[in-house]
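Let us practice reading a record.
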Amino acid sequence: QVRLVESGGGSVHAGGSLTLACAAYGNPLTSYVTAWFRQAPGKEREGVAAIDVDGVSGYADSVKGRFAVSRDTAKNILYLTMNNLTPDDTAMYHCAADSRRMPAAKALSVLHPAISYWGEGTQVTVSS
């Protein structure tokens, strides 16, 4: 059992940066594969970044080279640093955790709010 609470969303201009945080309560994040997903109206939910229990990360092609996922094990916080943002990055960003053992790349396609731990999300809006 783990509760996930996101923060750090906001409104930025294209080319700007934001860092999102996901605080976990009840269990250490290192017990789970953890990930960031985004959902925008009219678009499919997209897994953008994940980190497995061994600390190996994986990214969607759409964000590779611009986003970085990391975790602070002492504070039990998962981060997503987003650089060179574009309007296509506008979405509600959710963090997720799952006790199933899998590589980060797999987590991007199989974690789901119906079966994984899922935060309520933080909104990111990028204007032109």
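A brief commentary: Residues 42 and 91 are 11 Å apart (CA to CA).
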